[in-house]
Specification:
Blueprint (H helix, E strand, L loop, with lengths): L1 H8 L4 H25 L2 H10 L3 H26 L2 H7 L4 H14 L3 H17 L3 H23 L9 H22 L1 H8 L9 H34 L2 H37 L3 H28 L1 H6 L5 H34 L3 H25 L4 H26 L12
Helix pairs in contact: 1-2, 1-8, 1-9, 2-4, 2-6, 2-11, 2-12, 3-4, 3-7, 3-12, 4-7, 5-6, 6-9, 7-9, 7-12, 8-9, 11-12, 11-16, 11-17, 12-13, 12-15, 13-15, 15-17, 16-17
Length: 421
């Protein structure tokens, strides 16, 4: 959806691209901890299903919905003061205002965004993926059409520009969540009703949060590293920020594939551990890593071979294209490391290991990536390319350390996660 938003407003110029892309980045940086927190549902439900403990799985899902409701309230409030935050972070004035307006419209879709995450994680653990695919496909079509109507004012709709893109994506989020619930109701019925009073019990809720909080922290360390780099790009000018956002937008799109494989890894490894089959857990972990890194090798080849063609899909503004063309090959370089760290993270979540990966991400991005990027970006002629080299280094460090952790973790038997007792 972020790709569609950016492509649609691309006709309005580099400032519009920067506004929407920065708004998406702001949205995900304030919601990324919550997204990670809800991923606690993955190993708990997958391992419970693998062990045949279906009531434990139902309580975990209902607990997840309560957490999603609380997160939605908090994130919506944080999205409101956009102008003040972006102004304090010294972003270009022509970008900050539209970004803030875009984010407030996106905030309308925060609740279904988190609710959909819970339903998606549940269906993944059940291996019922088709309803999610259908809902996401339809929601993306809705987002595309709504963007076309509201950004440009077609068929009598108001011409809202960047603001229209925010409304379109928020509406698409509601469509996605409701459609997932409707299509998957036969599979979800038994975990959503009857309501289990134990879902609100404090100790199981506390244990769930204890599993999810490190995942959210891990995601935050990574996402905020990219977000901080984007803020640095804003200090270098609007064209630099827009070109950076094009390259990052494309890298984020290809990242969806290993991210999906990461979710599959969590499910199959978690179910194997739930039934006590460590041989299958090791085999499935290796298969997931091969799939994720294999795809990213292909996408890296595309990024390295056709940066100009890829940049001009978004815009033909000379200054913006020049920056994007200089960064897209670097995006190609970190594709493989990005895929590897994503999938190994999913494997570790499937085993219930969440605290160590959070520490590894802290070291990789804030001990290696950001310091190196700041040094190269602001003390050498590399400028934006120096900042991106820092991102490459951070991803490489995370990928290598997490791979070593996977090998260590899967050598011995692993007990099932139980939060109910």
């Amino acid at each position: 959806m972020g790709v569609v938003d950016t492509l649609m407003v691309g006709r309005l110029g580099g400032a519009a691209i920067a506004s929407v892309a920065l708004g998406n980045l702001y949205f995900f940086n304030v919601s990324i901890f919550g997204m990670g927190l809800l991923l606690a549902i993955d190993p708990i439900v997958a391992q419970a299903i693998g062990a045949g403990a279906h009531e434990d799985a139902a309580r975990a899902v209902q607990r997840g919905l309560l957490i999603a409701l609380g997160l939605a309230v908090l994130v919506t409030l944080v999205l409101m003061p956009g102008e003040f935050v972006l102004g304090a972070l010294r972003q270009p004035s022509e970008v900050a205002r539209d970004t803030a307006l875009y984010m407030r419209r996106r905030a309308i879709g925060v609740l279904p965004f988190f609710a959909f995450a819970v339903l998606r994680q549940t269906l993944q653990a059940m291996r019922r993926i088709t309803p999610v695919l259908v809902a996401v496909f339809v929601a993306n079509i809705v987002n595309l059409v709504a963007n076309w109507l509201l950004v440009f004012g077609h068929f009598g709709a108001p011409r809202l520009g960047v603001i229209g893109s925010g409304y379109a994506t928020a509406f698409a989020m509601w469509v996605m969540a409701v459609l997932t619930l409707v299509i998957a109701w036969p599979a979800l019925r038994n975990v959503l009703r009857p309501w289990h009073p134990e879902a609100t019990a404090w100790l199981p809720l506390q244990r769930t949060l204890r599993i999810g909080a490190p995942i959210g922290t891990q995601f935050f360390f990574e996402s905020f590293a990219f977000g901080l780099t984007t803020l640095f790009m804003g200090w270098l000018g609007t064209a630099t920020l827009a070109g950076h956002e094009i390259a990052l937008n494309m890298a984020s799109l290809t990242f969806m594939v290993p991210l999906g494989i990461s979710g599959a890894a969590t499910t199959v490894v978690g179910r194997a551990i739930g039934r006590g089959d460590m041989i299958a857990a090791r085999r499935d972990a290796l298969a997931a890593i091969a799939c994720g890194t294999g795809f990213m090798c292909v996408s890296a080849a595309v990024f390295l071979s056709a940066p100009t063609w890829l940049a001009t899909i978004y815009t033909h503004e000379t200054a913006t294209v020049a920056v994007a063309v200089s960064l897209i090959p670097l995006a190609g370089m970190f594709q493989v490391f990005d895929g590897l760290q994503a999938v190994t993270g999913g494997v570790l979540r499937g085993t219930g290991d969440t605290r160590v990966p959070a520490i590894l991400h802290l070291v990789a991005f804030w001990g290696v990536g950001i310091p190196l990027g700041v040094y190269l970006g602001f003390t050498t002629p590399l400028r934006e390319r120096g900042l991106w080299i820092g991102l490459v280094a951070g991803l490489a460090a995370a990928a290598l350390m997490q791979s070593a952790r996977v090998v260590s973790r899967l050598r011995a038997p692993i007990a099932r996660l139980v939060v109910e007792r």
